[in-house]
Amino acid sequence: MTAAETTLIAAVAFTVNGAAVRVSVEPETPLLYVLRNDLGLKGTRFGCGLGQCGACMVIVDGEARSSCDLAVSAVAGRAVTTIEGLARGNEIHPLQQAIVDEGAGQCGYCLSGMIMSAAALLETEPAADDERVRQALETNLCRCGVHPRVLRAIRRVVDAGRSGT
Amino acid sequence: MQAADRDLVETWLRIDDDGAWILTGKVELGQGIHEALSMLVAEELDLPFDRVHVAPVDTAVSRDEGLTAGSRSVQETGRTLRAVAATARRALVAAAGRRLSCPVDELTVRDGRVSGRGREVAFADLARDGALATPVDPAAPTKAPGDRRLLGTSPVRRDILPRITGAPTFIGDLDLPGMLHGRVVRPPGPGARLGSMDAEALRRNPGVVSVVRDGDFLGIVAEREDTAVAALSRATRFVEWEPGPPLPSVDDPRYLLGAEAEEIVVEDRGGSEPRAVPARSLRAEYSRPHVAHGAVGPSCAIARFDADGLMVWAHSQGIFRLRHELALVLGLDESAVRVRHVEGAGCYGHNGADDVALDAALLARANPGRPVRVQWMRDDEFAWEPYGPAMLIRLTADVDANGQILDWRHELWGHGHDSRPGRAGMPADTSALLAARHLSQPFLVPRPRAPRAATSGGQRNAVPYYSVPRLRVVDHYVADAPLRVSSLRSLGAHANVFAIESFMDEIAAATGLEPLELRLRHLEDPRAREVLTTVAAMAGPAPRTEGELLRGRGLGFARYKNQAAYAAVMVDVELGTSIRVRRAWAAIDAGMVVSRSGLLNQAEGGIVQAVSWTLLEAIRTESAGIASRDWDTYPALRFPDVPEVEVRLIDRPDEPPVGAGEAFAGPTSAAIANAIANASGVRLRDLPLTRDRFVAALG
């Protein structure tokens, strides 16, 4: 066997949405496939496999990160949050609620990734202005053109946070 | 009247304890069509909106309504469904009258129950007893505007929440028991042939279940998706391709002028009118490159072969046509193939959705009994999807001293805009599906369909909506397309309207008229005039240039297909280190508003998508194949550059609803070009309107 055909299966332990998980896969396996296929978390979506479109965005130790070009071994011992982990109990995240309220979706394929980018931003900058929001979502492509609605939804959450509601 | 209108109500609509189920064959592509159709039915049936659903679209149960395309779903299916629901309500009330021994005019309908004289009966019970086995009456009275409670409102779209809470809602999310994962090793470019390959080495990848070769079609099937993806990327080491003939460059659409073309006169009128003496003649040439659909989610399908035949899950726009073509390519009886629609990422036309279904079917055939899921890689989608084709347009106008247009000539060069599978009348040795041309017994590649009417293909919106005494429109139809091309949102209307509306501003500038004034002078239709005057009033004071930052404003208008929605848009641009569209104001009249939020969403999204096409998008070729293969080599609009968009709806409750989803493509592109000219005096006529082209034009 040549080197390329040798498989090294390793156990990788990390947390996903607060729960400890341990998977036995090739360490170079992109986190995206582990989330979707080994852990059954389908809300993180494949868009390009190149880290260019943001459909697969997750939060790793507080930072928004594309999961399609991130080896699972790189998150060993770290905390990963996916769209499934944003809700608190039965309450969906304010960003999820705002997206629904603004009707900010057409096909909806890009939305999980956008929400993760925005959630990571608002966690550290709850009063982020429009310019900051746009920058934070720069990786997130949308082809239906729902950007204006997504911006309105995020603004709604920022404004609600400011007024303390 | 459509033949379908004479069918029984129950073939369109089922009512059970969960509410009403619409059996349409129109599929949800993200455009919100199932919500709009549900609203139309809920309105006439007096059912709460949340109790009306669209049944899963499946060749085994749904009506064959052809394609979901051309902004026709609300316009055509919506009209039929209103009649279906109105007939159903009348039939249900009549049946309730008999059941309750109560005159119909004493009955009241509320939330799916009919009551009178102290008793009540549910729609579902009446339906079970056959109340819906009655012919659809196309003339069944529908609600007058004043009686409507749902149409024109904005109910919360029900399909968004599941998509953003992790529910498996897209085709790529389906996880069937025993499912395998396939990937296709595509040739480096069109025409390349599979030479030698080391199948053993490909198969030796741990976790690879099978390597499937049929002619130049090569697929890898694995237990795990990441194994299939890794095996695909290693495959280049084990597979030799014999390159095909070099790909001609199509980067400049003027290649069309050298191609063999059929001349089709689209319109020729007023030629016998006495020719007035023009004060001046203008001519200009405009172009659009090949544009990708570029869905955010690459095409995906699942197929399973077993004793019952072939079952396919696909996000095709035409599942019945796909079924037909899969049966043809695989040598199966159509009755042995079933296709169920599952939503994919927004497609905006014919992308790889049908092709990947054949890929999955070919790999499933080699692995009977187990479902095989195939998702294209980003590179597959960009390199192999059928693009929206390039177009070239030459316009000539004679104008009198007062700015009245005397004579208008529109010549266009372009390919067909429809290469979809399952087209009627195609020879049995041709197939539109990508893999079919690579098989050991290859199918011929069909030519794109020639335009049949002035609303189709490259001719769509080539006839201006303006009143001119002499008019000649000619299509130089180029049947042979060097790249794979098919339908992209708005078809030829995008380039035609871009050219017409740019040219209107050029005429306005040459005659000293305001762009709005020139348009109004040549428009008689009051609905057309109203969208224009509405946007003009919406936009505030004109933007002013500050130092190095040039600012300008531009207008664009069209009536989609000259028979559907009226759309006008005004944009402000800023020319600094890049060309940016800062604001867009728009007005649309699509007849009766069904879903307010849905229509606004389509308008806003259509404008944003057109900004992306206009400023950034073009498929580039190199001799070996397609050079645009990812989001770096095919840039698209991103958040920092998305304009603020404000849309006003002009509701016409007494007019039928008409197609609206594609209305803004051409007007937006032209408005941007016009704004750039307004800001700088530089007229850009070749899409995309890039900064490099702007600098080159400045000289």
Strand percentage of chain A:
15-25%
Query: What's the CATH H-level homologous superfamily of the largest domain in chain B?
Result: Aldehyde oxidase/xanthine dehydrogenase, molybdopterin binding domain
Total helical elements of chain B: 14
- End-to-end separation of chain A in angstroms reads 62 Å
Q: Could you give the order of the helices and strands of chain A?
A: EEHEEEHHHH
The radius of gyration of chain B is 27 Å
The share of residues in helices of chain B is: 25-40%
Q: Which regions of chain A have little confidence, pLDDT < 50, spanning 5+ residues?
A: none
Tell the overall outline of chain B: globular
The global form of chain A is globular
Strand content of chain B is: 15-25%
Average residue-wise pLDDT of chain B: 95
Poorly predicted runs of 5 or more residues of chain B: 1-5
Query: Can you summarize the main beta sheet of chain B?
Result: 7 strands, mixed
| Strand order in space, largest sheet of chain B | 9-10-7-17-14-15-16
Number of strands of chain A: 5
Biggest interface, chains and residue tallies: A-B, 62 and 69 residues
Overview of the molecule:
The complex is a heterodimer of chains A (165) and B (699). Chain A is 32% helix and 15% strand. Chain A is of the alpha+beta class. The longest helix of chain A is centred in the last third of the chain and has 16 residues, at 147-162. The model of chain A has no long low-confidence stretch (mean pLDDT 94). Chain B has 699 residues and is α+β, with helices and mostly antiparallel strands. Chain B has three domains: 3-159, Aldehyde oxidase/xanthine dehydrogenase, molybdopterin binding domain (Aldehyde Oxidoreductase, domain 4, 2-Layer Sandwich); 171-244 and 293-384, Aldehyde oxidase/xanthine dehydrogenase, molybdopterin binding domain (Aldehyde Oxidoreductase, domain 4), CATH 3.30.365; 391-416 and 451-698, Aldehyde oxidase/xanthine dehydrogenase, molybdopterin binding domain (Aldehyde Oxidoreductase, domain 4, 2-Layer Sandwich). In chain B, 25% of the residues lie in helices and 22% in strands. A seven-stranded mixed beta sheet of chain B has the order 9-10-7-17-14-15-16, sandwiched between helices. In chain B, strands 12-20-19-18-13 form a five-stranded mixed beta sheet, with helices on one face. In chain B, strands 21-22-23-26 form a four-stranded mixed beta sheet. In chain B, strand 22 and strand 23 form a beta hairpin. The longest helix of chain B has 28 residues, at 73-100. Mean pLDDT of chain B is 95; it is low at 1-5. Chains A and B meet through helix 1, helix 2, helix 3, helix 4 and helix 5 of A and helix 5 and helix 12 of B.
